[in-house]
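[Solved] Which block belongs to which protein?

Original post:
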Amino acid sequence: MSLPDNLRSQHGGPIAARVAAESAAEIVAATRTWLEKAVIGLDLCPFAHAVHVKNQIRYAVSAAETPQTLLADLVDELQLLASADRGEVETTLLIHPWVLADFLHYNDFLAVADAAVANLRLAAVIQVASFHPQYQFDAAGPDDIDNYTNRSPYPTLHLLRQESVDRALAAFPDPARIFEKNIATLRVLGHEGWNRLGLAAPSTPALPGRPAAGPEGTSS
């Protein structure tokens, strides 16, 4: 499985072997707060509340600094989710604060993620959804409030069981209206209302031996 040239050369340098426990806890806490206040609080995903209260969401923090290493972490998480007891792990949020901070690079990587799912013969088992601090829909401007339906504190790949998605969508007579409702919710809320949620992107904790990064992945 190969990476596009623009991703292959991105963010070269040594890779941290692991994320410090305190850094991972800070990242997970910010992601959980976003989930509770935005995704669940604004009812952007009608399926999120149940898996949250049942503690069936796996929060995996990747120490990857290159797309190649993130791909390896993604493969590990895909295999783990596919083999896990769904009563223990229903879905996974693979959070990768130190790589693909640029949304265009992240967007390019989504094709790599889909190829990884296919190569593992999991296309009918798992799908990958996308969340990013700079998320932007094709028809939207960078500052449009519509984008915030998919804006998360850190770049994140959401791994979902296809069977669970199909079962949940079957409960809705018109699943397409979920997206339309979310856009309407964000437009009523507006930027001021979103800011009141207190979900401004936090600084990214430093990996061992490296300075901390700001909201856009720059050193602070």
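(Second protein starts here: sequence line, then its structure tokens.)
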Amino acid sequence: WRIFFCPVFTGMFLLFSAPSYTVAQSPGNPAGKFKVEPPAGTELVRESRERQDMLDSKSPAGLRVVQITTDPEIASSNIYTEIQVFTPDSRRFIFRRQRDYWLCDTGDNFSLRKLTDEPRAQAPSVSPDGKWMYYFVNTTTTTDGALTLKRVSLDNFERQTVLSIDSPIPGTQLYAEHLANQTLKDPSEYQEGDVHGQFIFRHRHPHIKRGQETEFILKAFRRDFEVNGPSVLRIARTVLAGWKRYKNHADARIRNRFAWEARDLTVTFPASLWAARQWFRERNPLVFRKLTTLLDDMKREVGLKARLVAPLAGRIVWSKLRQEARRLKAGWTYEPPTFYETNASMLGCRPHWKFPAVPIHWVAAQVRG
């Protein structure tokens, strides 16, 4: 896998060492579960061109340079390689063009397709199976005051609204609706810093009573952990699935990529899963069975080394896990104490604050001889 990106003001360049790809199959959209919107773009855009002028006698054999965006009227194109923007087969990737996200298909002569058209779309991520691009639409400070999680199918390009978190922020449409319906709480009933109502809603909810807000959030996290287990289980399962799917891929670059991704399947994951099994054996039988199934699958796939490492290195991890549990039980925390500071003017404007705020004061510099 040899792909390098050079964002420039006039376009984006893609360098790669061979053009061989296989088409990844992607099933259609599941129906009926989420609100569906039509594709943001209905046509393929083709504007790439070869850039032989960027090669010289020192360039590696077989290297091509392709400029995939060349429209002079569109000034900015960017790709962020620190996030999951590639499909698993490395054939397609996501990039940002002005305010929208686009899909480039290197196997289709670098064709481009527009995926989003929402003004505040952000944080794209391709799902591990390569079927979806998830992203947020952030309107928390404009229009409706919502943070919306959406996804777009990389098969038929329909968009779906997965989840929306609304909050009546002043200046938004939702705030105006609550104001008109007289459902906003008095400022003395909530904390100004808790703008999204994770502790107390700033409006009267028809079904969630005061004091239930935090409990609902904590209950959701607890339930997710009880059913799906710790993050190490999810990460190891995803890495193992990717390795099994692409370890024999025809393209050596893809094989090498997933071999690198799967480097922890030999020691780190077997040891961690073995220790996690010990932890959940009596605490959560459902998660224990999931961990057992995954560890057995990993041992079959990796072989003798994983079978030997799991109980040996796993005992070290298990010992550290119990040591950390004892330390937390004794009162140790990962986060430092929280404190609030404010100025005199703000104290006068917010006498209803229920948390103690320490007045800010000037500290004279001390000169040491």
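Accepted answer:
You had them paired correctly. Confirming on the second one: Residues 1-31 have pLDDT under 50 and may be disordered.
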